[in-house]
Write a structure and sequence with these properties.
Blueprint lengths: L7 H9 L10 E5 L3 E6 L2 E6 L3 E2 L2 E2 L3 H13 L7
Antiparallel strand pairs: 1-2, 2-3, 4-5
Amino acid sequence: MEEGGLQLEEKVAFLSSVASHHGVEDVKVKETRMSWVFMAGNRVYKLKKPVRYPYLDYSTPEKRRQVCSQLFQQGRWAWR
């Protein structure tokens, strides 16, 4: 079980569902080695995978939270 009590598959299913996003007719999902990206209307959500490679370590919720915080502070999530 993941942090928050949900399995990873449940999180992906929830974010993939049109019913999870108000006023959206379609959710596009892209999967990479490191994350899933959910495009719902004019919003984009990114869910980091719990993975570890020689060049990165997202193996714990805290490590993923740190990376997300750094990206946000750098403005890399500012979609314009």
